[in-house]
Amino acid sequence: MNDEVCYSGYVEHSDFYIDPQSYYEAFKFLVDLAVGSGETVFYIGKVVRVGYDFELEDVMKVVWNGYDWVKGE
Is the pTM value of this prediction over 0.70? Predict the structure, then answer.
C-alpha cells in the first residue's frame, strides 16, 4: 500500500477534481488549468481515499492577486 501523501484540487467553476499527485505537480497543474480557463481561484488539498474514490481534507483556497498565486481567505 502506498502511504505517500497525495494532493488534488479544482478550479473555482469546475466540476471535477484533478488526479491525485505530489503537491508540486498538483499546484502546477491547477495553476495551468486556472490560467487556461480564465479563473483566478483554485483549491488544493490532501487526498483521503474513500473506497475507490477520494475526498479532500485541509483544503486551501489559492487566489491570483494580480502578481502571484497566494493563499486566499
Answer: yes
